[in-house]
Amino acid sequence: MSEQSDQAFSPTGGIQALDAVIIGAGFGGMYALHCLREQGLSARVYDDASSVGGTWSWNRYPGARVDFPGGPYYCYTFSEALVREWDWTETQPDQPSVLAYLNFVADKFDLRRDIQLQTRVTAAQYDESAQRWTVQTNRGERVSTQFLICAVGTLSAVNRPDIAGLDSFAGECFHTGQWPHEAVDFAGKRVGIIGTGSSGVQAIPVIARSAAHLTVFQRTPQYTIPAGNRPLDPDTVRHTREHWAQVRRQMIESPFGAPFVPSTRSALDDTPLQRQALYEKHWQKGGLGIAFDAYHDILFNQEANHTLAEFVRSKISQIVRDPGTARKLMPDYLIGTKRQILDSGYYETYNRDNVTLVDLREDPIETITPGGVRTARGEHPLDMLILATGYDAITGALQRLNPQGRDGVTLKQAWAERFSTYLGMAIRGFPNLFMIHGPETPSVLFNMPLGAELEAEWIRDCIGYLRAHRLGAIEPAAGVEAAWGQEVAQVASQTLFPLTESWYTGANIPGKHRQFAVHMGGPQYFKRLSDVAARAYEGFVLEPLPPPGTHRARDALSKSDAASR
Ligand code: NA7
Predict the structure, then answer these.
(1) For the CA atoms of 8, 9, 11, 15, what is the dihedral angle to 10 degrees?
(2) How does pLDDT run across 139-150, given as a tens digit for each residue?
(3) Rounded Cα distance, 119 and 2, in Å
(4) Is the Cα torsion angle 300, 303, 307, 312 positive or negative in sign?
(5) Would the pTM of this model clear 0.90, i.e. be above it?
(6) What's the 187 CA to ligand 1 centre distance in angstroms?
(7) N or C: which end of the chain has fewer CB within 10 A?
């Protein structure tokens, strides 16, 4: 922790005052801090982790890489100097590279003096009369802040599966989302891994190379596509730097936030031979282009979708030598409608002698024992167990934070039936609280660093507007959340995504209600944000500062006096 943070620590429990508290030191929280400080606001970031980086600090599992067009695109875009200064080396940067980048950014923009690590926010309570939040941390601090910015991450609330006997396992046990900082040694060990989502699929080939034996426990087979990670082409890097403003504009205007021009062709316009040739070309190149760029309708038309799904299934049959194992690996949902996985030698790994695949649909786990995993067909002795079981995605971290808004209503209470937001940025009953990558934003289906930037800039401008107009609080008006929810559902219903059970719909967490959590509109969404701002924050209730001399004004003033002391 920094010297500055030590000074901020208040063992006496005395209240400190700030303009903004930001929770989370990942891409979103770090940039929000930068934005607000540039506006002259006092702000502090709290994060439970021991380093900046958010998801890139926690996900240190072997094989972790960017699964979006990476290199010069999966990064901050606001500073051309930064774009010129940082040299990405691969098309799919690995976790240490992204973490090194974020540390570099923290230093370059002098962010660390206002970031307090290893500090968890344990409570946040809105005081209506003061138009301020009181935030408490696990280090005993109490902070009064006008604005609370939740940049808590979409994939940060770890899903520890409810499997009988899990706590009795006597060997080493790690979740991919809480991976230790120290090197984990697989050599000579019998390793088991539960889960074959993005994290499991990235980790499995790497672990298999050094473990004595790897047993993969798979519940649902998934389509994965070669990542095609390779050194960045120097011409691409040069072109990106020379035409940065244009590249950035293209990213903001493209459906997923990457600077590529989507195809205008339907998969059904081509003959089977033509399609095969195009899919093969993309497969050899690697990356998401096969699903997102080859044809425009893979994610919109079931018949088009089946052509690509069938192509990937044929690849599994060709690559995996044992037909029984290949059969277990065959996915049968609409391709691309779960998080599309990119891998580095995943299917090939099942040709190794030291790898076993257990299909939990035909051989379910009965219990975990001190010595391994017992399935219906027998015992799998293990020295190490890895949980690649994902997250309570998108809403989980916010619910675990559980802020208490107007009239003492907590977020868990407000969202007991279903979550509701306005623009994915704000919640009625929780004035002056903003979210970055909240539910009903494009979040995980758009370039996340870029989306975080655009949202943080919107928050910065909104706070600037409130200050300029001497307004004390902002929150969604009655009825706008329902309309927003319908808009999000309507955009999603034009795609195939809602037809598949996934963590986008909440289906991966037992008991979680089903609600599509992502605004699929990308550029349309960000245009909407700008329009709302341009129309003086249409859809929000803007509350004036209390009149001078009133009890509320004295309360608010004494808190802002505290800030300047
Ligand atoms: P995911 O995609 O949610 O994958 C979790 C996996 O764990 C998935 O295969 C699940 O099977 C499996 N799982 C979860 N609970 C259980 C239980 N109880 N028993 C057996 N198997 C289980 O999370 P990831 O971390 O892989 O991906 C998130 C990433 O997306 C993130 O890190 C970014 O890279 C993007 P299921 O499919 O539910 O049957």
Answers:
(1) 50
(2) 999 999 999 999
(3) 12
(4) positive
(5) yes
(6) 25
(7) C
